[in-house]
Every structure is written in C-alpha cells, then in structure tokens.
Amino acid sequence: MRKLILTTTLVGALGALPAPTPADAATARDCLVSAWHSCDKDFPSSNSERVIAIRGWCYLIRWGLCKIL
Q1: 3-state secondary structure (DSSP) of residue 68
Q2: Which 8-state DSSP code applies to residue 1?
Q3: DSSP secondary structure, 2-64, as one string
Q4: How many CB atoms lie within 10 A of CB 34?
Q5: Which residue has the higher pLDDT, 23 or 53?
Q6: CA distances from residue 7 to 12, 13, 15, 17, 43 in whole angstroms, order as listed
Q7: How far is CA 18 from CA 2, 3, 14, 15, 27, in A?
Q8: CA 8 to chain centroid
Q9: DSSP assignment, residue 65?
Q10: What is the pTM of this model?
Q11: Average pLDDT over residues 40-63
Q12: Mean pLDDT within 46-64
C-alpha cells in the first residue's frame, strides 16, 4: 500500500510539471540581425564616439525588446 501511494504521488507530481519547450535559437538570431541592421540604418557609421555609443545602446535596447516581445 505504501508503494502504491508513493507511486501515485510521484506520477501526479510529474504530471503537474509543465512540458519542456525547446529553445528557438533561429528566432533569437533573426531578431538580433534585424536589430543590428535597423540600428545601423538609424545611426550611420561615423568617427564620433557618441554616435558609436548610441549605436551600441541601440543594439542592446532593440535586441532586449525583441527578446521581451
């Protein structure tokens, strides 16, 4: 009887766990590439340190937004 109770408890606990979902690396890569290209288009290359810094923050913010949404 003890084994039966433990077995049903274990099966119930395993059934309550969420189903694992595989990581979608291709979507994350596509999102990063699109953020990269859009930031390059919005802030064109220059030798100014400020523009380079702004473009770097643009990469981080747009890729982060893509991961959230």
Answers
A1: helix
A2: -
A3: HHHHHHHHHHHHHHHSPPP----HHHHHHHHHHHHHHHHHHS---S-HHHHHHHHHHHHHHHH
A4: 13
A5: 53
A6: 8, 10, 12, 16, 61
A7: 27, 25, 9, 8, 22
A8: 36
A9: H
A10: 0.57
A11: 89
A12: 89
